[in-house]
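RETRY 2/3 - previous attempt timed out on the joint model. Re-submitting the same 800-residue input unchanged.
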Amino acid sequence: MKKFALLGACAALVMSAVSVAPVAYAADGAQPNAFTDCGIGGALFPDNGGLAAVSNIIWDLGTTGLSSALSSPEQCPGGKAKTAMLVGKTYAGLEADIATGEGKYLTAVADVMACSTASRSAMYAEVRNNFANEAAKPAFASKNTADKGEALYLIVEQAGVNAKCAAI
Amino acid sequence: VTGPCLFFRALPVFKSFLMTAAFLPGLALAPAAFAIERPGDAPGWRALVGFRGDARQSDVITPEFFLAPDGRVNPHAELEATRVAMALPVGARADAHAQCRFPARYLWLKRQGLVDGVADVTCPAFNDWRGDQRPTGASVIFASGDLSNPATFYGHMMLRLTTGSEGHDGTLLENIINNGAAFPPNENPLVYVSRGLTGQYKATYSRTSFYEHVHRYGEAAMRDIWEYKLNLTQDQTDLLTAHAFELQGVYNRYYFLRQNCAYRIADLVNAATGRDVIPPDKIWTMPGDVLDEMSEAQNDGVPLIRSVERMDSRKSRLRDKYLNLPGDERARVVAFLGAPKNGLAPAIDGLDPKGQVRVTETLLDYYSIATLEPEKASSEDKTIRQTLLVARMRQPAGKGDFQKPPTPLQPHEGQKSTLTMVTAGDNSVLGGNLQLRLRFAYNDFLSVTPGALPYSELSFGDLRFETDGNKVTIRQADIIRITTLNVSQTGLPGDGGPAWRLRLALEQERLDCDDCLTAVAEGNVGKSFWLNRSTLGYVLAGGRISGPEAEMGDLQGGVTGGLLFNAGRPWRLGAEAGAWQSLTGAARSHLTARIETRIAISRNLDLAASVASDSFAGKTTTEVRSGLAIYW
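RETRY 2/3 succeeded.
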């Protein structure tokens, strides 16, 4: 009898397997604190509080179970914060695009910074060149993703400024 | 409805009418000409306020969603209360006005001529939520299934609001609408399962940027994403956008097997188009079934689906790149992986610039996957990846010149997820019989399911009943059977992983009996390998608990070997043999073998045939079967 009960419990476990995408547990109506979530990334990356305090961005990287309510763009208004979120959350894909010199993540970066069509090629080339220099540093391989993301963001931001992108 | 009932039902309508008359004597809010006797009965209105089909109660459980006191059970009262609220003066905060809280309702009422004379209110929150660009279309997004986690077995479904013009890819900054259960962090899995199955979670819609999901699924989870672009009119897109907004933070009850993500995304499509794309003949809702339904639906005289595109995961990109490299370059990749310390130069020297890019990009993808979890990756791999990354950035910009891979089957082009198989059999001991097999979902090795993990089977509720003309018996009832072969798709080191199987079932212990039903819990691990381009082999070793009173004893150990030939194609064949030894009580062994083939007559109809053999205590039994397999 116990075996049947065990089988039943296991079956229930597996039959529950229709996609369950968690969203914020908002039953209590609590709203994310924009300052905390955008200004103190250390709340999300406790080992990286210095970065958060300085750069005022989220370095979620999209790999944790962080709810979308906590990471929605409206919590982090402004072109720089939006760019930082994009860079941080898509670091791996963006890095691959930069290696190639084109791609959907790179396009999204130019879009979020509101770069003109004419300025994009030069902006991409600058990012690619400067990031190649950054990646060639011996310490790069051992950096954590948050640090790599910060370095990439600063390169992207500078390229956006140089390209006179409207939202950076 | 007669007498007092009708009177009480009419009360809210009467109350709304009085409120209208009191607040807005000058506005033309008299009932407009309407094809349906009461506009509250209109399917479009009912969909907007959460009444599915003929339901008497809205699916929405958030009280604030309803403006009429009995709005949850009375769509007519809700409509009247909404009409009144739409015409109220704007207060200190425009976003609190009904037009701003329920922009889809307002749009719908306006199109029906039910709020004529009411001035439009500007809604900052809605405009901000929608974004700078007005959505011009929508796509249903399907993240393919993955067996790493029970919550992802059947894939996930979302809805993308697109802003690009026809033929334009749009941008990753576009909004995507997600629906998911709300549960506390660190929920105990058993609590989570029991509450999910019994509807004790609430679910809501949320919006985020498309890039988050593309990256999460494609780069981190390495699951392919399929985009089903919908053929919507601008009016329908506007309604869909507005409805998605007014449902943010509005809760429904969540049931894992039915009212799940696929169900709620289908709800949005229904609200916009009037097309119900939830399969009517099933008690569960799976993303694959909804895609199937959508692929056959029409919208205003045109197919609901305009086109389907795949967004490759990084793993798929590596596979496609590597398998489509010219032979010499493929050999160079393999040689590099064998001796990476020699550096990149030997791998690309002598190649033209395009060849150098192809080899470098393939290797970079390989090491990017190898170092996906940096804390687990070796420092050697990280350093090699760094070298490759820098090398690629020093090469000319532009996508590598790779040969285009063959177009894969799209998820809706596979067979449907429920299987009914009728076969006639001849058993060397029991004689002739008829077998009815009903597999509720989702796939097995011989079904064609491009939206599922390749070379895997995920069957729940796989029942086989037999009759010899005198009685009906259960031959086998797999409550759940999951197998993933995790085969290396490139043959490169580190690609692929362990194969495994988990099975919980009731089954006749041997082929030669129909009164030896026993319960089985089985687990196996092993390895799969390619024998040639169309034949896959696998070996599994595992344990099995059987009972009660199984002749093989409570505990057994065994080895299973199998072959899959032409998987996913019109004619496919599978063979499997197992040798099991009892580990408790008397030493007994049980040998099994089975060969099965299915040949497609049409997409959802196969000819099926099998031969099975079973040897126990020196006695061998064989059984031959043939019949039809119908997928629905």
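Chain A touches chain B through 64 residues (CB under 8 Å). Closing ticket.
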